[in-house]
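Quick question: what would this complex look like in 3D?
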Amino acid sequence: MYVQALSGLAGKPRDLPASKEEAGPPNDHILQEWQLVQRAQSLEESALASLYTTYYPRVYNYAFLHLGDVQAAEDLASEVMLKLLESIRKYQFRGMPFSAWVFRIARNKLIDLHRRRRRRGEVDLTEPLASMQISPQVLAERALDRGQIHLALKYLTDEQRQVIVLKFIEGFDNGSIARILGRSEGAVKSLQHRALHSLRRIMTAEAH
Amino acid sequence: MRSFGSILDECLEAIGRGEVLESCLARYPRQADELRAQIRLAQRIAATPHHPPRPVAQAAGWHQFQAQAQDMRLGRKRHVSLNIGWLRPLTIAAALVIAVIGAAGGSVYASQDALPDSPLYRVKLTSEDVRVWFTFDDSRKAELLLDQSNERTGEIMEMLSRGKALPGNVLSAMRDRNARAVRILEDHPDQLDLVTRAREQSAEQEDLLLVLWSDVDESAQGDYAEAVATLHNAQLRTAGIPGSVKPDDVAAGVMNISGSAQPAAEGVWLLGGVEVRLDMRTLGGAALQSGQPVHVIAARGANGRLLALSVTTTDGEQPEQKYVVSGTVDEIGDNEVVIAGQRIALTDKTLLKLKLERGKNVEIRVNDVGGEAVAASVERGSGESEEAAATLLAFEGAIENDVSTQNATSDWVVGGQEFTVTPDTEIDVRDGTIKKGALARVEAVADDGEAIAKRIIVLAEADDESAVHLEGVLEKSDDESWTVGGLEVAVPAEAEPPEVGSLVTLDGHREDRRVVAEKLLTTHHPGRRGFALIRGPLYQIGDSGVWQVGLATVEVPAEATIRGEPAVGGRAFIWASRDDEGTLRAVFINVLRTH
């Protein structure tokens, strides 16, 4: 069952999101997923496997972009999937895509992890060292060139990073992002603009 | 005019639907350059390939997921979810041991998020020990033990935020790991970073425990005393200071006392008449001068004697950097809470003694950290939600009995009323000496018919030993008496009782044990939002009627009643209510004399 579901995992390059995770009137994709979720709520194995193979890689990627650490991202993805399973019977379709609900769990788990780390006094080893002689603009540019977007995103605030990842990497629309982050759509647009502006400024600063 | 953010979003959406970039730019020629740059950057980000997970990790997660689903189908309790992250080597080591002895498969794994009240907590501690056994380098072992000791801090904070009493196991585990780390480091004084960490971490942990006496399970008070003594001694030993505190020195809890220090005998000082031992073991007490204003945290020994664990000198010229806000929670953000219209930052150092929820009545101790209001602790307020401060009583009168500070709890009779003083009661003797006949202000909460003192401020010699002053909320009334903050008060027959829930402040005198009101100062109902209370140093008295207490701002309208003489640097206690716009307006202000 799991191997079958894995076969559908092949990644594909993305264009700018065409609102594939739209809120508003439910489209076919959302309705199909709702049917799948209903089967998963009955703990039907094929439905669970399908959700797992769809969401584990997405949540892992989301976690990796925020944490920059493979093991921490794997642990977080597993935690999110277990939480998803534990809570899935409580999910009710009210126009919000299931994926937004999953990413809201992921966001909360990420916040919990940051709190635990702060409490333990852990140091983020992926943070660029102050003594490094390479400027942020060079690092960000190099990171984007190499597809290491998580390094470029380190120069953004947490919320700006969330919006960039959810919008341009995960393809959510503003309404869903607003639900995931607990912010208004206006705030999401503004964060999107500020994030792109900051990244651009960092990367072009050296040219001026 | 539309914002750039909105135009950018429109173009991104349009391009996502298939429109070409130039067509959108043509609609916004003035913004075209910036739009082009940001959209291209967004396209570049969107073109970044996904970072795929390692198949082995995904498959391992699937097995766990599947096992949990199976448990759910069978109606079994779920597996505890786990973040193994930094515990990965530990998990491997523990798994090896368990595989060898063939026992309790899965217990170690499931125990990693266990809290001290869980049956799995013992497994968690054992698995930590296993990790220490498998570590052969002394420095690494000391570091690991400090990590494990720090983990106990997190568990304590978590227990408190869930409103649970602290059992002895977490305290003894903290003590044990700390002591082992310090013993190792004593053989490696060259490990300066670790030695410094051990000292600083022990100081933070001791500070935490010193405010938790009342949160410790009664059966765990011995573990508490041992933990405080060990953490204190860890600081002494890593600083090369001889001497040690014994658990017996802390057997009857702690005492917080502020006042002017006067030497009494070799190693013994008086603070407002209270005898406290200050010696080599007292941190921060080396250069203490006679007459210096200080704040002392003292351990109370089994014999009732007080030993100062730490002394902080407070410059009398500077206002205090702390204040307290009580009221209902308006809003909760990721790193802040809004209470009584005041925005207060929450940090990982904030001691949360409850789960924060909107509408809950809380008391927050706030520090002024470089002009930012930062919560030091958040605990349950003195009333239920929507009835803020309903059971709080502020009472002033003469101390009428021979007060002793020897026991963990004692009864003080002030103005004819009996108050129970506990290790949590703050004692402020900056303006007077604790003795029979001194005027004292007691802030108390009614608990099961008993008035528990939260704070006692000794003000001065009482001019009139029968005079009393009272501030509290009206609970009920009949023709002859009103019940205010749990206290029955005789009122003049012509006095019209206000609505239940109103603030009542009055001056009067005592007749035997009865309070007889002579002058009603204030009666005011706060409406559905309840009262907010603010107490702390007066930073500013603005001409426009806005006062600043600590960093909290309060509007003081002309009709507010002010008792005492307002002066910057003085200590104020303010009862305030909020209007529909959320503005905090003072109803009654008591300004205590400046020390």
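Answer marked as accepted. Chain B is about 30% helix and 35% strand.
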